[in-house]
């Protein structure tokens, strides 16, 4: 998941959403593992926005182990996860205790894609 989170961070940075992580906790995760990753093996992780809701996003991801020690490139895992927007307080800190989902800010919704 660290590889997936790094890919997600790049995606959000590329869309100009630097304050995304403190206000978008994961609420669901599905992973299917297909092959082991070996120590020292190069890894490629991809993340894409699969669905944007009013206050949630569903991401799809894949993690690939690159060719290593004579073993071919192979998909190691794939899956999906959901995050929800919990907003922040007046000081800019994420609401944590008793957090409830709230709609994405308009600028964020535009950067993420159309809500469905």
UniProtKB/TrEMBL annotation:
Pfam families per record: 4HBT
Location of the Thioesterase domain: 23-68
Domain of life: Bacteria
Annotated InterPro entries: HotDog_dom_sf, Thioestr_dom
Gene3D superfamilies named among the record's database cross-references: Hotdog Thioesterase
Name of protein: Thioesterase
